Amino acid sequence: MNSVDIARNRLIDKLLVISNKSYLDALYKIVEQSPVISDKVQLSESQREMLQMSEDDYKAGRFITHEQLEREDTEWLGKL
Predict the structure, then answer these.
(1) pLDDT band at 1 (very low <50, low <70, confident <90, very high)
(2) What rounded mean pLDDT belongs to the chain?
(3) Do the beta carbons of residue 36 and residue 28 sit within 8 Å?
(4) Phi-psi region at 38: left, alpha or beta (left = phi > 0; alpha = psi -120 to 50)
């Protein structure tokens, strides 16, 4: 993974825990106004492998619906 991928992933990790909507809106405006050099995303070999594994899981029926996931999350949270 190159340094850009590492920086992007670290930023995504931080964004996932922010719950302040106005802060997120401000960040979105900054990103939205930034120039895009390329519309194509270059995937690393490990990212392509993960996507292939996901596709294989889907084809083999190894998945659950969003509703099932929500029920399992609710059950799990109830046990805390």
Answers:
(1) low
(2) 91
(3) no
(4) beta
Q: What does the block give as tokens for 74?
A: 């609710």
- 4-30 pLDDT, tens digit per residue, is 889 999 999 999 999 999 999 999 999
Look at residue 6 and give its three-state secondary structure.
helix
The residues spanned by each domain of the chain are: 1-38, 48-80
Mean pLDDT of 51-70: 96
Q: Position 38: which residue type?
A: S
DSSP 10-79: HHHHHHTT---HHHHHHHHHHHHHSPPS-SSPPPPHHHHHHHHHHHHHHHTT----HHHHHHHHHHHHHT
- Residue 16 is encoded by which pair of tokens? 């996932």
